[in-house]
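User: Run a structure prediction on this.
Assistant: Running it now.
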Amino acid sequence: MGAYWFLRLVLVLGILGSCVHGLGVNWGTMAIRKLSPETVVQMLKDNGILKVKLFDADQNTMTALAGSGIEVMVAIPNDQLAVMGDYNRAKDWVKRNVTRYNFNGGVTINCPADCY
């Protein structure tokens, strides 16, 4: 009985696995020994990673991603969430940390059309 259940699970996972169209990763920057953003971007490209979620909009990271073709989703850092209730402050954050990298040859930003 147990082996039969296991085989069914493997079959279901195999079918679901064939439906995956891409793979993305979360990229955090809190580390003792950080790799350079250029190295990380090259590793992502070498491994076929097409999407990445950043937990801050570090200038070096965003610059390294520019022109890479990797789709980027930028999250607001947790320590700044409380102040983002103010619309103008949130709009300014997006302008400083997202919009400035959104140009031809820049960072491919994962964002609805009206977020800029």
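The longest helix spans residues 2-17.
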